[in-house]
Amino acid sequence: MNHVVGIIAEYNPFHNGHLYHLNQTKKLFPDAPIVLILSDNFTQRGTPAILDKWTRTKHALEAGVDIVVELPFPFATAAADIFASGAIKLCHELGVTDLVFGSESNDIKGIQELVEVELNNKDFPSLVQVYLRMGYNYPTALSRALEDITGTTYSLPNDILGISYVKAIKKNHYSIIPHTIKRTNEYHNKELDQNKMISSATSIRLALQNKEDIKEHVPSYVLKSLKDMIPYKKDDIFPLYQYKIITDPNLEEYHLVDSGLAKRLKKEITKVNTLDELIKKVKRKNMTYATINRILLYIICGFTKGMAKNMNDISYIRLLGFSKKGQSYLNRIKKNIDIPIVSKFSRERDNMLEFEYQTTKVYALFFKTISPKIIEQEYKNIPIRKEEQNETND
Fold first, then answer.
1. Nearest 5°: CA angle at 227, between 222 and 233?
2. φ, ψ at 183 (rounded to 5°)
3. pLDDT tens across 98-114, in order?
4. In terms of CB atoms within 10 Å, which of 139, 189, 299, 390 comes out highest?
């Protein structure tokens, strides 16, 4: 069997833990082309990536990925199941046979058993509803329902995403085999790990803000990009949130905004000075911090309920970069792909692609010093080519 390996990531930024995951994947599948599904300029937590998607594509190719494609905004900024559905659809369209993802439990059998419960246990949906009525947010309700039925708790982010990946594979009857690699550090650890030199992306981003030395925690080619970067400060753009919420008469038109949240946003927006303050004021027990963050991003990007309904499926493959091996693989399979491969931007091509251009212009507002370049990249750039496949292990 000829293997084609899929990896799904944000690389925000690419660090030694990602390099470890990639190298372990290569050991499992030494000759297979590696396809990366990379989030666009925004992340699942509703925040801008600290480096744009083209820079992160370069890092992925340098590390040994063969094909990089974009996970569009409606999926990249969504909750786990929607995020996974888009990413897995792209994997399927690109002929991926094996998905390799990081996992805190490293228990693929256990994850698959939990998915069987979610999909087939008749008591599961009613249990979820019980916990939702008790005021728990949706991820917690799912976790508690699964624990009640199986006696097993899976509440850490990579395992939760892994469950969503496997669920998307099973629901769509895709011929993709999932594999796990043990995560070597805590996902939300805010301190750099000076012993292992494998630190979380969260700790690296905080270290950058605090002007700490991160050179031991990221590959040299990533360090160079980060040294040239001016970190955004989320509160610098808070006036945009204020203006939008104050002046827009119908906040309920935006994705996931209900009447209660709309009223709280209108009430609190003039009483707070930062985004975190606003989130704390409007958040309720049944909503996660990340959910509120995403909703506020939808508001400033203009992502409406109608758009979410119409952009609920992957309709194109946006190619960001490839190696020589990746190009050869794409040439072999492109006739068998059911949706168009986009290598040159054209806003007339697809509504979701056109919306990607709009969100890129919002992303550029977070990075004022380089914003014209970021916007130009969206419509001028063609896929990045890495002519020689040199494995990098520094």
1. 105
2. -70, 135
3. 999 999 888 899 999 99
4. 299
